[in-house]
Amino acid sequence: MPLFLLLLLLLLLLLLPFSVNSFVLHAVTSPPYMSTGLSSTSSSSSNVDLSSPATCSALTLQVCTSTKCSRRRSQFGLDEYSMISLLEDRAAPNPVAVEQSSCLGWCKRAPCVAVTHEEYEGRIGLVGMDESEINQRMFFNVLWEGDAERIWNAVANAVRELDEE
After folding, report:
1. Measured in whole angstroms, how far is the alpha carbon of residue 51 from the centre of its chain?
2. Which of 8, 108, 122, 158 is the most buried if burial means most Cβ atoms within 10 Å?
C-alpha cells in the first residue's frame, strides 16, 4: 500500500503544470505585481522609459518560435519573428530582454509569450492577463500589435509597481 501512495504522489507531481517550488513561492509570497491594486488600463506604454534599469533587466519576455506558434503566425501572413520585433520596439529604451523560446507547452493556444523574473522560479503572471493566462502564467493567441501593446502594458505596470516598493 505505501508503494501505491508513493507512485500516486509521483504521478501527481509529474502532472502539475508548474514546479512545486514555483507554486509555493507564488502562494506564499505573491509578487507585488500580481496585486489587485495594480492598474492594467494605463495609457499606451510604447517606448516608455521606465525608471529602474535594475528592475527592467530582471524581466525577460520569451516569445515562442516553435513550429505550431510559427505556423499560426504564418496563417495570418506574419513571420515567426514578428512578435519579437513588436516587443523589442516597445522595450527599446529599457533593458527588458526579449528572447525567442522553444515550445512553451500551450500549442493549442498558440502563439504564446511568457514572462520570467530572475528572482522567481518559472514563468510569472502579470496583471493584464486574463484568468486562463494567469493560471498558466503566459499570454495566449499573441499575434497583433494590440497584443504586443497589452503585454508591454503589463510589463511596464509590473516594473512601476516593483519600483514603488
Report:
1. 21
2. 158
> What is residue 107's DSSP assignment?
G
Distance CA 35, CA 43 (A): 19
Contact 127, 35 (CB under 8 A): yes
pTM for this entry: 0.72
Burial 114-134 (b: 16+ CB within 10 A, else e): bbbbeebbbbbbbbbbeeebe
- pLDDT tens, residue by residue, 39-52: 333 444 455 667 68
Other CB atoms within a 10 A radius of the CB of residue 160 amount to 19
Compute, in degrees rounded to 10, the torsion defined by CA atoms 124, 126, 130, 135: 20
Return the C-alpha cell found at 3: 508503494
Q: Which of 137, 136, 144, 33 is nearest to 83 (CA)?
A: 144
Mean pLDDT taken over the chain: 79
What is residue 38's predicted lDDT score, i.e. its pLDDT? Answer: 35
